[in-house]
C-alpha cells in the first residue's frame, strides 16, 4: 500500500466525521464561485447598478474567504484532536514526524480538492439559475450564461492556497504534542472547571464598555470597533466564567438536581463547560454577525416601504434659485398634463432657525434647529397630509409638529416657551406627531407653526426655503411597483431633470417619491441577495461546528452510556439527557445573538433615522431559529442512534 493510498483509506474510513466538513467547505466554494461568475460577467459594466453590485459581491468574497479560513482551521484542528491516539500509534510503530506530517497533509488536501471540485461543479450547474435569481432580486436586466474562466481560476487559486496554508500551519501543533499525550487521546481526565472572580468581573466590564460605546451621543466607526471588540471578549468570558456559576447554582439546588435525569445532564455539562464555552462562543459570534446583517437589511427595506407609504406627495421640487423655478415647474406640469394625471401643486415656504434655548433637554444637538412655517401654509397642507385632524390653526400661539426622527418632547408638556437665536421668545401651546413631515425634507428637525404675522416678522430671505409639492390622488391608492404609471412617469421626469442640470438649464433640485423608493429598494435587494447566501454559509457552518464537537465526544459518551445502562439507565432517560445537552448547544447562541442584535442595532438604526427595530430582528432570529431547528433534529437523530447502539 502506498502512502497516498493509506491517506485515501483513512479519509474513507472516517467519512462519517468528514462528511459535514466536506459539505460545508464545498458549499462555501460554490457560493464563492457563483459570486465570482456574477462579478466577472462581461455585461456587468453596462448595467446601471453593475458597479455597486460588483463591489458588494467582492466584499462578500472577502467575507467568505475570511470565514472559510477560520472554519477550515477549526475543523482540521478538531479532526486532529479526535485522531490523537491514532497518530500516537503511528509514532510507536516507527513512523517519522515527516511521514506523519505528510499523511496529514495528503488527507487535508484530498478533502480540500474534493471540496473545490464539488463546489465548482455545483456552481457551474447552478450558475444560470443563480444569474437569473440575482437579476430578479436586484431588478437588473437578464444576464446570459457564459463560460466563467476568470471565476474558475480565482476560485481554484483562492481555496487551493487556503487549504495548503492551513494544512501546513496545523502541522506545527502536531509536532509540539508528545507521544504520551497523543496516546492518551481524549481519555485524559478532566478536572471540574473553576471560575475566576477577576475574569468574571472583567467580562462584566467588557460587556458594559461595549454597551456604553454604543449608547454615547455620537456613534463613530471607532466606537463601533470598541463595542465589537469589547462585546466579543465579554461574550467569551460570559460563557467561560458565568456558565460555571450557573451550573454551580443548579448543583446546589438538591431538589432540582435529583429530579429525573437532571443529575445526569447537569453533571455532564459541569465537566464539559470549558469545551462548550469555546463552541458556544464561536457559534454566538457567527450567528450574531449573520443576524445583525439580516436584521439591518430587513429594517432598511421596511423603513423604505414605510417612508413611501407615509409620503403623500409624489413629486418634490426644491427652488434654490428662483430664476429657474418658473420654467422648471411649467415643464413638470406639462409632463403631468400630457399623462392625463390629476394633481394639486402646493407651495411650501419655511425658514430654518436656530433655537437658543433647546426645546428638548435630552438631546441638545437634534433640537438646536427648527423649521418655521406659517399657520396658513399648514392649513393648506393639512388637507393632504392630515397633520392636524379636525382642527385648523388660528393666529394665536405656536405649535410644534415632529416625527419619529425628530423630538418626541417626552420630557416637556405644553405650554412652554422657547427662545430663538434672535432673542425672540415663542410660546408652544400644543404639539403634534406626524410622520408625513419627512416628505417635505424635514427628516430630523421639528416643524414650528406660527401665525402669519409672526412668520413675516421672522422672515429672512437668506434662510428661507421654498418647496413645491405635488399631490396625485390616484397614485396614493397603489402599492409601489416598478411598472406602475407613477414609476414610469417619475423615472421619465427624473431623466428629464438630470438632462436640464447637465445642460446648465437649472440649478434647483427635484425628487420623486417612487424614484427614491426604487433606488433604495435596489440597494436593499442587492444586500438581500448577498446576505441570503452569506447567512446560509454561517448557518451550515454553525451546524458543522456542533456536529464536529459532538463527534469528538461520541466515543467517550458511548462508553459512559454503556456503563450507565448496565446499572439501569433506560433508553428514554439517555435520550432526554442527550437532547437537553444538544439543545443547549444549538439554541442558547440564538437567544444570546438576538439580545446582542437588539442592543447593537438600536443606535445604528437611530443614526440612519430608522425607527423599526423589533420586527426585523425577531424575523431574522426566527429564520435562524428555524434553520437551526432543522439541523438540531438531524444531528440529534444521528447522535442518539449512535448512543443507542452503545447501550446494553
UniProtKB/TrEMBL annotation:
Q: What is its main location?
A: membrane
Tell me which domain of life the UniProt entry assigns to the organism this sequence originates from: Bacteria
Q: Which InterPro entries match?
A: ABC-4_Integral_Memb_Prot (IPR052536), ABC3_permease_C (IPR003838), ABC_permease_BceB-typ (IPR027022)
The record describes its membrane topology as: Multi-pass membrane protein
Per the record, GO CC terms? plasma membrane
Coiled-coil residues: none
Locations listed in the record = Cell membrane
The UniProt keywords, alphabetically, are: Cell membrane, Membrane, Transmembrane, Transmembrane helix, Transport
Where is the chain membrane-spanning? 18-41, 62-81, 110-131, 151-174, 195-212, 224-247, 279-301, 526-548, 582-601, 613-635
Annotated ranges, domain ABC3 transporter permease C-terminal: 63-171
Q: Would the keyword Transmembrane be found if you checked this record's keyword annotation?
A: yes
Its GO biological process annotations read: transmembrane transport
What is stated as this protein's family in its record?
Belongs to the ABC-4 integral membrane protein family.
Name used for this protein in its record: Putative ABC transport system permease protein
Amino acid at each position: 500500500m502506498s502512502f497516498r493510498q493509506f491517506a485515501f483509506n483513512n479519509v474513507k474510513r472516517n467519512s462519517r466525521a468528514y462528511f459535514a466538513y466536506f459539505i460545508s467547505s464545498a458549499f462555501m466554494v460554490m457560493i464563492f464561485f457563483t459570486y465570482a461568475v456574477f462579478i466577472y460577467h462581461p455585461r456587468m459594466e453596462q448595467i446601471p447598478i453593475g458597479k455597486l453590485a460588483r463591489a458588494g459581491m467582492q466584499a462578500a468574497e472577502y467575507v467568505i474567504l475570511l470565514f472559510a479560513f477560520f472554519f477550515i482551521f477549526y475543523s482540521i484542528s478538531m479532526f486532529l484532536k479526535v485522531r490523537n491516539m491514532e497518530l500516537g500509534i503511528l509514532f510507536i510503530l516507527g513512523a517519522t514526524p515527516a511521514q506523519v506530517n505528510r499523511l496529514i497533509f495528503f488527507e487535508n488536501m484530498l478533502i480540500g480538492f474534493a471540496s473545490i471540485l464539488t463546489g465548482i461543479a455545483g456552481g457551474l450547474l447552478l450558475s444560470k439559475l443563480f444569474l437569473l435569481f440575482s437579476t430578479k432580486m436586484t431588478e437588473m436586466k437578464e444576464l446570459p450564461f457564459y463560460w466563467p474562466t476568470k471565476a474558475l481560476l480565482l476560485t481554484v487559486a483562492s481555496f487551493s492556497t487556503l487549504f495548503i496554508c492551513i494544512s501546513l500551519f496545523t502541522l506545527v501543533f502536531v509536532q509540539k504534542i508528545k507521544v504520551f499525550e497523543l496516546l492518551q487521546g481524549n481519555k485524559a481526565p478532566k478536572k471540574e472547571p473553576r471560575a475566576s472572580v477577576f475574569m468574571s468581573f472583567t467580562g462584566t466590564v467588557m460587556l458594559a464598555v461595549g454597551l456604553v460605546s454604543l449608547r454615547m451621543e455620537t456613534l463613530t466607526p471607532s466606537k463601533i470597533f470598541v463595542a465589537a471588540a469589547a462585546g466579543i471578549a465579554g461574550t467569551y468570558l460570559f460563557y467561560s466564567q458565568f456558565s460555571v456559576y450557573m451550573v454551580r447554582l443548579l448543583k446546589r439546588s438538591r431538589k432540582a438536581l435529583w429530579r429525573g435525569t437532571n443529575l445526569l445532564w447537569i453533571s455532564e455539562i459541569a465537566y464539559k463547560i470549558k469545551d462548550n464555552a469555546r463552541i458556544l462562543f464561536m457559534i454566538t459570534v457567527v450567528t450574531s454577525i449573520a443576524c445583525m446583517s439580516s436584521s439591518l437589511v430587513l429594517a432598511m427595506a421596511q423603513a423604505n416601504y414605510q417612508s413611501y407609504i407615509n409620503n403623500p406627495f409624489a413629486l418634490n421640487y426644491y427652488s434654490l434659485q428662483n430664476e429657474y423655478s418658473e420654467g422648471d415647474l411649467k415643464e413638470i406640469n406639462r409632463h403631468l398634463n400630457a399623462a392625463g394625471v390629476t394633481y394639486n401643486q402646493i407651495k411650501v415656504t419655511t425658514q430654518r432657525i436656530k433655537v437658543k434655548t433647546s426645546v428638548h433637554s435630552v438631546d441638545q444637538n437634534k433640537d438646536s434647529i427648527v423649521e418655521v412655517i406659517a399657520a396658513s401654509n399648514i392649513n393648506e397642507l393639512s388637507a393632504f397630509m392630515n397633520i392636524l385632524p379636525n382642527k385648523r390653526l388660528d393666529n394665536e400661539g405656536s405649535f410644534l409638529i415632529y416625527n419619529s426622527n425628530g423630538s418626541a418632547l417626552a420630557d416637556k408638556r405644553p405650554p412652554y416657551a422657547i427662545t430663538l437665536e434672535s432673542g425672540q421668545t415663542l410660546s408652544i401651546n400644543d404639539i403634534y406627531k406626524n410622520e408625513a413631515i419627512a416628505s417635505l425634507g424635514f427628516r430630523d428637525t421639528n416643524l414650528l407653526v406660527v401665525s402669519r404675522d409672526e412668520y413675516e416678522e421672522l422672515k429672512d430671505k437668506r434662510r428661507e426655503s421654498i418647496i413645491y409639492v405635488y399631490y396625485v390622488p390616484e397614485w396614493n391608492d397603489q402599492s409601489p411597483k416598478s411598472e406602475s404609471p407613477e414609476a414610469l412617469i417619475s423615472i421619465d421626469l427624473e431623466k428629464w431633470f438630470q438632462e436640464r442640470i447637465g445642460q446648465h438649464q437649472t440649478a434647483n433640485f427635484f425628487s420623486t417619491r417612487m424614484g427614491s423608493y426604487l433606488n433604495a429598494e435596489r440597494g436593499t435587494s442587492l444586500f438581500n441577495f448577498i446576505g441570503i447566501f452569506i447567512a446560509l454559509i454561517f448557518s451550515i457552518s454553525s451546524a458543522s461546528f456542533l456536529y464536529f464537537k459532538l463527534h469528538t465526544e461520541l466515543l467517550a459518551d458511548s462508553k459512559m452510556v454503556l456503563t450507565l445502562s448496565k446499572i439501569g439507565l433506560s433508553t428514554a432517560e439517555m435520550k432526554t439527557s442527550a437532547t437537553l445537552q444538544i439543545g443547549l448547544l444549538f439554541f442558547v447562541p440564538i437567544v444570546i445573538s438576538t439580545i446582542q442584535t437588539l442592543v447593537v442595532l438600536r443606535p445604528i438604526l437611530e443614526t440612519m433615522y430608522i425607527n423599526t427595530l423589533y420586527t426585523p430582528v425577531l424575523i431574522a432570529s426566527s429564520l435562524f431559529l428555524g434553520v437551526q431547528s432543522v439541523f438540531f433534529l438531524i444531528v440529534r437523530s444521528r447522535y442518539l442512534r449512535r448512543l443507542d447502539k452503545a447501550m446494553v
